[in-house]
């Protein structure tokens, strides 16, 4: 989770926020990404085969710690998202008006073999519709889900408009434990913020836990505190940050 806005990072001179990302696949410590779980090439080949068999390659987003990659070159897709070619991509911290996950530019892959060049893939998101004009992928939650669930960790958000694949044995709490060991912090001194069933183990295991008001019922039940003002996890993080530090925007 990206906990702070660019304005806050600039104001408070904060580096990229230390923490756990991509459902526990990697963590960032002092500006360095440490990959804990990633897809093997055999995994990627299996996923590509399944996507191609269901004509769903254009619906998939391949996520690394720094960049997201797509195979979708439809004009309507490019109207909605910032996209560049693989050879044209230059890492930048500049703000992007619209991106697939609100933080990263999308890099277009034109050949399937290009996926061998992009580094550690920590998460893959498959959308029912990746842009508003696209025909919906009707078998996403049935046939495609069924083919993938036995080989990977599959997460379905409450809105059910996509499925998220993670490498098997990926776990937020395992990565949080590594983070705690690095800083020599007891797990019961860590605060977690969540909103749905994917966060249950994390919320139950950390010493302090907060969920937003629109969270799923299991998440509301397990958390130690519930925000009654907002459904935005970043907003909760911002409030906690200001309370702890005593600094204001």
UniProtKB/TrEMBL annotation:
Entry annotated with the keyword Glycosyltransferase: no
Keyword Transferase carried by entry: no
Family annotation (InterPro entries): HAD-like_sf (IPR036412), HAD_sf (IPR023214)
Keywords, ordered alphabetically: Hydrolase
A GO molecular function held by the record: phosphatase activity
One Gene Ontology term, aspect cellular component: cytosol
Transmembrane segments: none
Protein name per UniProt: Putative Haloacid dehalogenase-like hydrolase
Gene for this chain: HAD3
């Amino acid at each position: 989770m990206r906990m702070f806005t660019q304005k806050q990072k600039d104001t408070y001179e904060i580096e990229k926020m230390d923490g756990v990302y991509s459902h526990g696949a990697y963590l960032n410590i002092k500006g360095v990404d440490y990959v804990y779980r990633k897809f093997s090439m055999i995994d990627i080949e299996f996923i590509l085969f399944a996507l191609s068999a269901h004509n769903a390659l254009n619906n998939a987003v391949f996520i690394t710690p720094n960049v997201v990659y797509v195979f979708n070159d439809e004009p309507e897709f490019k109207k909605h998202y910032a996209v560049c070619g693989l050879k044209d991509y230059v890492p930048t911290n500049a703000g992007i008006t619209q991106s697939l996950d609100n933080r990263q530019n999308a890099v277009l892959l034109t050949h399937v073999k290009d996926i061998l060049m992009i580094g550690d893939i920590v998460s893959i998101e498959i959308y029912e519709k990746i842009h508003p004009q696209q025909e919906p992928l009707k078998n996403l939650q049935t046939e495609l889900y069924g083919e993938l669930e036995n080989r990977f960790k599959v997460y379905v958000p409450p809105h059910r408009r996509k499925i998220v694949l993670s490498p098997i044995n990926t776990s937020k709490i395992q990565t949080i434990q590594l983070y705690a060991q690095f800083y020599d912090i007891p797990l019961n001194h860590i605060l977690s913020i969540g909103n749905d069933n994917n966060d249950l183990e994390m919320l139950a295991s950390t010493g302090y836990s907060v969920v937003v008001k629109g969270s799923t019922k299991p998440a509301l039940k397990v958390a130690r505190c519930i925000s009654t003002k907002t459904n935005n996890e970043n907003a909760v993080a911002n409030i906690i940050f200001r309370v702890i530090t005593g600094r204001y925007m």
